[in-house]
UniProtKB/TrEMBL annotation:
GO terms for biological process: response to hydroperoxide. This is Peroxide stress protein YaaA. One of its GO terms (cellular component) is cytosol. Signal peptide: none annotated. It holds the Pfam family H2O2_YaaD.
Length: 250
């Protein structure tokens, strides 16, 4: 099983790794794409005020542009611990036992605008870049889409895509019987399902944690649905190519 997660715009700082090593990242087929993105970010970062504007950073977060100045030598930590925000707080990967973290390493991939698809335990630096960021001479959509789509098409087994639409657009998952895009919905009094926005991230984090703790390895979406029912999740087929995770409105 491969679980695709979105990144978070905010990142935890620091790390014990001694610098970004592209050879240590999963999916070496993306190495040259990573080099190109890093070079474009380095060029943008020569003028930090301009970089902050290009990255759409407001006054409170403008200083984050400086994170991109020396990415090659910046300290690293596992991607699943680097990313912050609601989904990752709900997942709380740092508190998982070793077998569950090993499952994350085998089964979870995070979609990064800077580095493309990275494994959950891949060592990555703190940075600031979004799916819609503008880089000099490089369109992130055109840059990542073909390479990542081809990579995901070659993945065997169940693929469950928990990414936001913006990050899914940087490399759509394959359209096939054992692949699905997850939507988090709630049901109103009229029985109709409605998509959740902010609160969908916490639900995705809880689902990811439960999968890791169970060390699930479903051979099909039907097996995944059966596991979800046994684990107390309301997960069901939605529109074509989608699964709905039904939660109560907070």
């Amino acid at each position: 099983m491969l679980l695709l997660l979105p990144p978070s715009e905010t990142k935890r700082r620091g790390g014990s790794g001694s610098g970004l090593d592209l050879a240590a990242l999963s999916f070496p087929a993306l190495t040259e794409h990573r080099r190109a993105t890093l070079a474009a970010v380095a060029e943008l970062s020569r003028d930090l005020p301009a970089a902050a504007r290009a990255l759409k950073l407001g006054p409170k977060s403008a200083a984050d542009a400086a994170l991109n100045v020396d990415l090659a030598d910046a300290p690293t930590m596992p991607a699943i611990d680097r990313f912050d925000g609601v989904l990752y707080e709900s997942l709380d990967a740092a508190s998982l036992a070793a077998p569950a973290r090993a499952w994350l390493g085998r089964s979870v991939v995070v979609s990064s605008a800077l580095l493309g698809l990275v494994g959950a335990l891949d060592p990555v630096p703190a940075y600031r870049l979004s799916a819609d960021s503008r880089l000099p001479g490089l369109s992130l959509g055109r840059h990542w889409r073909a390479a990542q789509t081809e990579l995901l098409a070659g993945v065997d087994g169940v693929v469950l895509d928990l990414r936001s639409e913006a990050y899914a657009g940087l490399g759509p998952a394959p359209v096939r019987a054992d692949s699905a895009y997850l939507r988090v919905v709630t049901e109103g009094a009229d029985g109709r399902a409605r998509a959740l926005n902010h609160f969908n991230k916490a639900a995705k984090g809880r689902l990811t944690r439960a999968l890791a703790e169970s060390e699930v390895a479903p051979a099909s979406l039907d097996e995944l649905l059966a596991w979800a029912e046994s684990a107390g999740f309301v997960l069901r087929r939605g529109a074509v190519g989608e699964l709905d995770l039904v939660v109560e409105q907070p």
